[in-house]
Write a structure and sequence with these properties.
The protein is mostly helical. The chain has 12 helices and no strands.
């Protein structure tokens, strides 16, 4: 192939190139924040805030601790998902796992409490006492899940399976924090079981449903 042919080939390839808007984490973060705030506003508008918050008081210490642990998980998972949508090789996306390990303190605490009061544990585990919280938590996080999905859909993550897990956990954690602002229960068993199930089931749903949709 002579130089003229090479130049023609390069010119032909270059003619098809179009400028691409750079991907910025700040823009994706705004999408996530909008989904989080929107889900919270919708649930609180439909169902109202828990009585102490509605009266201008603070949550009791244990529910507040649970709330911030789950917030940390949601933020860490969302941040990992946002970074998966950026070009680059060898990035570390495992930071959210440490936040996930920290939140394991909630079910472990609930387990210890349950051993001490089995009757209270059985009452907290009754579906009529918590199934609605689980459903509301899963639904409230859909905005965050959608924001991360569309962010990663345009970024072609190298591991769609991992991306599905992270999106699901981020959405579930966001939903669990939102439902914590509405749910009046201060019982650790209820919080760990039903709010925690919203996180777990969202993660499983993200793993099962999203990887095929994230592949190019």
């Amino acid at each position: 192939m002579n130089n003229a042919s090479i130049d023609d080939l390069i010119d032909g390839l270059a003619d098809e190139l179009e400028p691409v808007r750079p991907r910025r984490v700040a823009r994706g973060s705004l999408w996530v924040a909008a989904g989080w705030v929107g889900g919270g506003a919708a649930l609180l508008w439909l169902s109202g805030a828990r009585h102490d918050l509605a009266d201008g008081a603070m949550m009791p210490p244990l529910p507040m601790l649970s709330f911030w642990l789950v917030v940390a998980l949601g933020l860490a998972a969302a941040w990992s998902a946002l970074r998966m949508g950026l070009p680059g090789v060898g990035r570390d996306y495992s930071g959210w796992r440490w936040a996930g390990l920290a939140t394991l303190a909630l079910p472990l605490s609930a387990l210890v409490i349950g051993f001490g009061d089995s009757h209270a544990a059985m009452e907290a585990a009754r579906p009529e006492n918590g199934l609605r919280c689980m459903i509301e938590g899963a639904l409230s996080g859909l905005g965050v899940g959608a924001a991360l999905f569309f962010w990663l859909k345009g970024g072609a993550p190298t591991s769609p399976t991992r991306a599905g897990w992270v999106i699901g956990f981020a959405a579930g954690a966001a939903g669990a924090t939102i439902v914590a602002l509405h749910c009046a229960s201060n019982d650790m068993i209820h919080i760990a079981l039903w709010h925690g199930l919203a996180v777990l089931l969202s993660g499983v749903a993200g793993r099962l449903l999203l990887p095929p949709l994230l592949r190019w």
